[in-house]
Design a protein that fits this description.
The complex is a heterodimer of chains A (about 230) and B (about 80). Chain A is of the alpha/beta class and about 230 residues long. Chain A contains 5 helices and 11 strands; from the N terminus they run βαββαβαββββαβββα. Chain A has one domain: Rossmann fold (3-Layer(aba) Sandwich), CATH 3.40.50. In chain A, the strands form 2 sheets. In chain A, strands 2-1-3-4-11-10-9-6-7 form a 9-stranded mixed sheet, sandwiched between helices. A two-stranded antiparallel ribbon of chain A has the order 5-8. In chain A, strand 1, helix 1 and strand 2 form a beta-alpha-beta unit. Chain B is elongated and about 50 Å long. The chains are: A alpha/beta (about 230), B alpha+beta (about 80).
Chain lengths: ~230, ~80
């Protein structure tokens, strides 16, 4: 019996630029990845959704602030509310924060400079659907490329998130002025995650690192497990 | 009715743009204190009276124009 391929939708906004890399990486990791246009109001029977990186709607006003109102985002919010797996990468993370699906907000880098390099990340949790293939405390090397990736939460919110273990990744060195070096967070129920680094750009040693494949294949495996459960 | 919305970083929130401008002004020889950079949004609001216009603009701020986690806003209305 062949293993069923989970169907993963990659949401496409005008101004997205990492959508094809995400699709390619997910397919290489054995997912049936399909594009979903931002005006869609129905998701084509998906097991997971990925919001890729880019500059949706030109990053006007604030990053992710306009994309949040795309028709497809309402559908994604409903999908997430039912426990569907949603991963936001870079601009996707910004959109999820602006939508209120993830806590905090992404701000201008403290240096005001665009950062584009491989960064070491520490895995804080390996028990989320996005990190099952990682080990807690493990160091991953994954590229970032953003001008507005400084994650912020006020003291009360940050303490709550710490207490509920919602911080999934931290930079191992200062990158953008992010609070407590947070690089990725998960929602309270654990089915929506966002991170600034780009796992889809690190799925083959030829690209400098294949560590991103650990995150994306965790997602693909978790989505597959859900398909099997539903079958 | 014309509305002006001033969106600015909340007190205590680090404003790296403001800091960069502040240090540039100092380099030019101006003695300035803390510079903060915000955003000005000018709008034409269709409303029958100032109270409902203000309420509309407030909803716009909460839903889109400002992110309440890091920004505060002020609304000014000007009758034409």
């Amino acid at each position: 019996m062949t293993r069923p391929q989970p169907r993963v939708g990659v949401l496409r906004f005008p101004g997205a630029c990492d959508d094809r890399d995400a699709l390619w990486a997910l397919r290489a990791l054995d997912a049936d990845a399909v594009f979903v246009w931002h005006t869609e109001t129905e998701l084509p029977n998906l097991d997971a959704v990925v919001l890729p990186g880019g500059f949706s709607y030109g990053d006007y006003l604030r990053c992710g602030a306009i994309a949040r109102f795309a028709p497809a985002m309402e559908t994604v919010a409903a999908f997430a509310a039912e426990g569907g797996l949603v991963l936001g990468i870079c601009n996707g993370f910004q959109i999820l924060c602006e939508s209120g699906l993830l806590p905090g907000v992404l701000r201008r880098n403290e240096s005001l400079s665009f950062v584009c390099r491989d960064v070491p990340l520490r895995v804080e949790r390996s028990d989320t659907p996005f990190t099952t293939r990682c080990t807690e405390g493990e160091q991953l090397l994954i590229p970032v490329k953003h001008g507005e990736g400084s994650w912020y939460a006020d003291d009360d919110l940050y303490e709550e998130l710490e207490a509920r273990r919602q911080i999934v990744f931290r930079y191992s060195e200062p990158v953008n002025g992010s609070r407590a070096d947070v690089a990725g967070v998960v929602n309270e129920s654990g089915n929506v995650m966002g991170l600034m680094p780009h796992p889809e750009h690190a799925v083959d040693p030829l690209l400098g690192s294949a560590d991103g494949a650990l995150i994306l294949s965790s997602l693909v495996e978790s989505a597959r497990a859900r398909t099997l459960q539903a079958a | 009715m014309k509305a002006r919305v001033l969106v600015r970083p909340k007190r205590g929130i680090l404003d790296p743009q403001g800091q960069a401008v502040e240090s540039s002004l100092r380099q030019l020889g101006f003695s300035v204190g803390e510079a903060r950079i915000g955003r000005l949004v000018e709008l034409e609001v269709e409303a029958t009276d100032a109270v409902s216009a203000h309420a509309d603009v407030e909803r716009m701020c909460e839903q889109l124009l400002a992110n309440p986690l890091i920004e505060s806003y002020e609304i000014e209305l000007a009758a034409q």
